[in-house]
UniProtKB/TrEMBL annotation, chain A:
Family matches, as InterPro entries: 2Fe-2S-bd, 2Fe-2S-bd_dom_sf, 2Fe-2S_ferredoxin-like_sf, 2Fe-2S_ferredoxin-type, 2Fe2S_fd_BS, Beta-grasp_dom_sf, Diverse_Oxidoreductases
One Pfam assignment: Fer2_2
GO terms assigned for molecular function: 2 iron, 2 sulfur cluster binding; metal ion binding; oxidoreductase activity
Organism for this UniProt entry: Nonomuraea montanisoli
Domain 2Fe-2S ferredoxin-type residues, every copy: 1-78
Gene3D superfamilies for the chain: 3.10.20.30, [2Fe-2S]-binding domain
CDD domains documented for this protein: fer2
Keywords tagged on the record: 2Fe-2S, Iron, Iron-sulfur, Metal-binding, Oxidoreductase
Metal-binding is among the record's keywords: yes
PROSITE patterns in the record: 2FE2S_FER_1, 2FE2S_FER_2
Name of this chain's protein: (2Fe-2S)-binding protein
From TrEMBL, chain B:
PANTHER family membership: XANTHINE DEHYDROGENASE SUBUNIT C-RELATED
All copies of domain FAD-binding PCMH-type, residue ranges: 1-170
UniProt name for this protein: FAD binding domain-containing protein
Pfam families referenced in this protein's UniProt entry, alphabetically: CO_deh_flav_C, FAD_binding_5
Molecular function via GO: FAD binding; oxidoreductase activity
Lineage of the organism: Bacteria, Bacillati, Actinomycetota, Actinomycetes, Streptosporangiales
Top-rank lineage group of the source organism: Bacteria
Keywords associated with the record: FAD, Flavoprotein, Oxidoreductase
SMART domains according to UniProt: CO_deh_flav_C (SM01092)
InterPro entries reported for this sequence: CO_DH_flav_C, CO_DH_flav_C_dom_sf, Diverse_Substr_Oxidored, FAD-bd_PCMH, FAD-bd_PCMH-like_sf, FAD-bd_PCMH_sub1, FAD-bd_PCMH_sub2, Mopterin_DH_FAD-bd
Keyword Ribosomal protein: no
Record carries keyword Electron transport: no
PROSITE patterns for this protein: FAD_PCMH
Protein's organism: Nonomuraea montanisoli
Amino acid sequence: MRVTFTVNGREESADDVWEGESLLYVLRERLGLPGSKNACEQGECGSCTVYLDGTPVCACLVAAGQAQGRRVRTVEGLAEGGRLDPVQEAFMECGAVQCGFCTPGLLVQAHDLLSRVARPSDAEIREALAGNLCRCTGYEKILDAVRLAAERKADPARARGEAGA
Amino acid sequence: MDFLRPTTWQEALAARAERPGALPLQGGTDVMVEINFDVRRPEALLDLTGVAELREWSVTGGVCRLGAGVTYATVIDELGGALPGLAQASRTVGSPQIRNRGTVGGNLGAASPAGDSHPPLLAAGAAVEVESRERGLRTIPAHAFYLGVKRPALEPDELIRAVRIPVAAGPQYFSKVGTRNAMVIAVCSFALALHPEERRVGTGIGSAAPTPLRALEAEDFLSRELDWDAALDLDWDAALDAGLLRRFGELCAAAAAPIDDVRGTAAYRRHAVAVMARRTLTWAWDDHRGRRAA
C-alpha cells in the first residue's frame, strides 16, 4: 500500500509498504531517515521515539498505515533554521552521548518535556525519560544536559551570550 | 495482509462483520509487538484510530463512559478525580510514550491477566459496551468479561465500543509489584474501591490467576465487618482492627490462583496479594475516616 504523511514539515509518500510494517521501518528504510533507531521493536527502549501529531510515541509500535495523513517529526527535524535545538547542544556540551544509539530518542523525549514544563524537577525529568534506556552513560550526564537545556530555553538571551563568549 | 481503515463506528462494525479474521488495532502497544516479532500474522489489521468518537469520554448520571480509544495519558490528565483507581493504574503503565498510545479499550481487547486496567475496573464495578452490526449493543460486567488467558468475552463480529465506570464515591487505590517503577509488567497487582453509600468494598486482583478477578469472599467479609460510621465518632486513633486486616489479606490471597513463571513464584504472588490488600485497605480506610470527619 501507499502511505503519505508529513515528515519534518514535508509531505512524503512511501510505496509498496507492507500492511504490518511499522512507522519506524518506513522512516528508516523507505524515507532515508535513519536518525530514529531500531533496537527492541517492542516499545521498551525508546530509541525510536518520534512525535506523531505532536505527541511522543515509539515509532516501532505505530503501524505505518496509522500515520496516513498525519504529522511526524523525527530527531532530524529538531534543528531549526540551521541551528541545533538547545536540547541537542546541551547533550553535546555535557557529554551526554557515548555510543549514541539511545540519543535520538532521548532528544525527542527531552524536547517534548521542555516544551511542556519549562523548569522540570529532577523527578519530572526522570519520569519523562523512564522509557528511554541508555546502557553507556548511567544517565547522570543526560540529566545534566536536560537541566542545562531547560536553563537555556528559559533564558535564551543569556544562552546566546554565553555561546558567543 | 490488508489494512482496514474505517472512519466511522458503522464502518468499523461492518469491517468487523465482514472480516472476522481482522485484528482490531488501537495504540499498537500489544498488537505491533506481536507483528514485529512474527508471533502473529492476522489476515488484516482493523485500525480503529480513525474513528474519532472512540477517543471521547463523558460523565452522565454518576457514570463515566470511556471510549475504547481513550489513552492512558488522557485518563491520567483528565480523569484522576472521577476514576482515581484507574488513573493510578494508568500511571504505572509502561512509559510516557506507551501511555500516549495505549488505550483502556485495547487493554480489554487483549485481556492479558497482567493488564493494569483490569483490577481497578473490577473494583469499581465497570461494564464493557460491545457491539456487532447484526446483534447490536450489549453490556458485559467487567467480572464476566475475562474468560481465560487473553480471552475476552467477545464474539468474532463484536468490537469494544466503550467502558462504563461508576464515578468514585469513595477512596480507591491500586498497587502493583514489579522490578522498577517504569516499563514493568505486573508480577501481580491489586485494586480496592470503597463504596461507602452501598457499604460495600470492591476488589480486583491482577496477574495472579488465569484471568483478572475479584476476591468475592474478601469483599463480603469486609462489607459485613467494617464499621462504616466509625468516623462519626471522631476517634482519630482508631485504626483498622489488626485481625480484620489480616483476615482480609488472607481471603484475597486465597482468591488468587497464581502460577510460577519468570516474573515470580506462585507463593510470592500469593504473599504479595495479601500485603497489597492490607495496604490498599489501610490507605482507603484512612481516607474514608478523614473524609467523614472533615
